[in-house]
Design brief:
With 198 residues, the protein is mostly helical. The longest helix is centred in the middle third of the chain and has 39 residues. Helix 4 runs parallel beside helix 8, helix 7 runs antiparallel to helix 8 and helix 7 runs parallel beside helix 9. Belongs to the TVP38/TMEM64 family.
Amino acid sequence: MNTRYIRFLIRIVSVIMLILLGWLIVRLYQIGMFNDTDTLINVLKKYGIWAPIIFIFIQIIQVVIPILPGGVSLAAGVVMFGPWLGFLYNYIGIVLGSMILFWLGRRYGRRIIDIFVSEDTLNKYIGRLDSKGWHWTFALLIFSPVAPDDALVLLTSLTKMTWREFTLILLIGKPLSIFIYSLGMLYGADWLLRILGS
């Protein structure tokens, strides 16, 4: 079997997988899985021991294709699997999704960035990407639970940051922001009501 034939088969399989993934995303969106924590939890419960793997896959999707508000899936992970396992599954899915996003940015450059990054975010950060301090800026922003992480990952893919540096920043920086964001989504409204009520 020659190399050209293998490449052709890989392309065909890739197209089929993309079509199936697209169909799956549309179907899940139609049943409300991407905008309601309770629906997401109820669907996941049906899969028993496979629920963590499916949840991690959903987290990867929501990073790569921003159709699911991150707060919905973060909160669902903690509610369904508990604080420790929920945090772990959130962390694995978000880190893997961010690495795929970084690879896509490296592979397709501005073509993909112009699709997924808003003009305001692009204008805000584009001038800083070539500066020597971008490594530190990116690291500090990844620590923050309110920074536009997915956009920052794509923008960083345009810089000379190595895979090793990017992965290290991601692995160290993500736990804190995931933890804070998860707690905020779960308990923020309750805390706010208590403060206002007192």
